[in-house]
Design brief:
Organism: Xanthobacter tagetidis
EC number: 3.13.1.4
CATH topology of the largest domain: Butyryl-CoA Dehydrogenase, subunit A, domain 3
Bound molecules: flavin-adenine dinucleotide
Distance between the termini: 47 Å
Number of strands: 11
Pfam family, one: Acyl-CoA_dh_N
Keywords: FAD, Flavoprotein, Oxidoreductase
Largest sheet: 5 strands, antiparallel
Number of helices: 13
Order of helices and strands: HHHHHHEEEEEEEEEHEEHHHHHH
Strand content: 15-25%
Protein name: 3-sulfinopropanoyl-CoA desulfinase
Shape: globular
Length: 384
Amino acid sequence: MDFQLTDRQKELMDAAKGAYERKLAPLVADTSVEGVRRLRRAMAEQGLLGLNLPPEHGGLGLPLLDTLLVIQTLQACAPIVGGLCHRTSTGAIGAVAEYGTPDQRARFVEPLCRGEIGISIGITEPEAGSAATALKTRARIEGDHVVLNGSKQFVSFVNINEFTLVYCRFGTSGKASDIGAVIVPHDAPGFRHSSGTLNMADELLFELYFDDCRVPKENVLLDGGAFGKLISVYNAERLGSMARMLGSARASYEYALAYSKERRQFGREICDFQGIQWMLADMRVKLDAAHLLVMRAASTAQVTGLPAPLETSIAKVFTAKAAKEICDDAIQVLGANGYTKEYPLAHRYAEVRGGSIYGGTMQIHKNMIAAAILERENSQWKKA
Ligand SMILES: Cc1cc2nc3c(=O)[nH]c(=O)nc-3n(C[C@H](O)[C@H](O)[C@H](O)COP(=O)(O)OP(=O)(O)OC[C@H]3O[C@@H](n4cnc5c(N)ncnc54)[C@H](O)[C@@H]3O)c2cc1C
């Protein structure tokens, strides 16, 4: 057991920060669709996409743990850059890399690593939020095509990305075993999306509609019996979002620490006050503890290839809460300045707040932890 970062890991993080400062920082202000796609291509040129995807398909083949360190570093630099690194390394593409045919890997993983395409993930539906296996979107094979009917909601990055990995039902048993996934191009006939709803971090979340949406059969990733497989890969995505929460929490902590040494009240720097010192100490304790839990969960992937569910849920519950509290305390250290949009901390808080909801809410992860420690199925479904 080694709690220290290796020289190689420190080099990776320094290189990512250096690439951000030299090449990416000038691009982040342009938040238009074209601007974000330009940034994505620039990140590909810097080797910052597809970090843990297979090298034979253009990825860097980094271990999950190293991937998370880079995501965390880039997130602290700028959330849009951390988000792109996350979405193209441990996002929906992970399922394509893991379960895709050689043809699918060539068509999706390779262009994604070159920054040419991006893939959203469509799981949530109006009546299937936490109860994800209640999803109703149907897929049926018709000749050379798969035809989808249904809808999704709260899907991120749909305007930027060119595809969505859609979780859908291939059978009619109503059981989780019907669930598979299809890679749907956003220009497929019968596909539409809403103009998006702004969330509190000013990011758009989209509704997707499938009305006899026809997609070539070659885009079926898994045609049923796949929910467990999809969620196993999704645990890496969850860890990617935890790395982002850590990056934002660290940036907030460092900002507050520096501010507390500058701001003077009562003739002294505010870091001289015990009330401020204890907030800074609490922030640092939570940051280190969350970091170690996320790294522990990531290290389990070295054994099985995918992160262990229990360690992932434990890391998620602690990190999502810690990140919220760290960002909240950072705002408090800055007083009214922290609460304005002139300073970056209000946005950091809004962003990490979503972490308690997406990727399985805190309560759902606690249910899963309880199931594991009590060694029972812990089904949440109402008994018939
Ligand atoms: C920023 C953001 C980005 C997102 N991006 C995507 C995306 O790209 N793709 C996608 O598919 N989805 C996405 N989502 C949706 C997200 O996955 C869902 O919001 C989440 O699964 C919860 O579903 P819900 O919002 O319908 O809440 P509900 O399931 O309605 O839950 C409401 C409340 O009830 C609690 N609850 C429900 N069931 C239980 C239970 N059994 N035990 C205890 N408490 C329970 C929940 O914890 C929550 O507090 C995103 C959400 C956010 C906030």
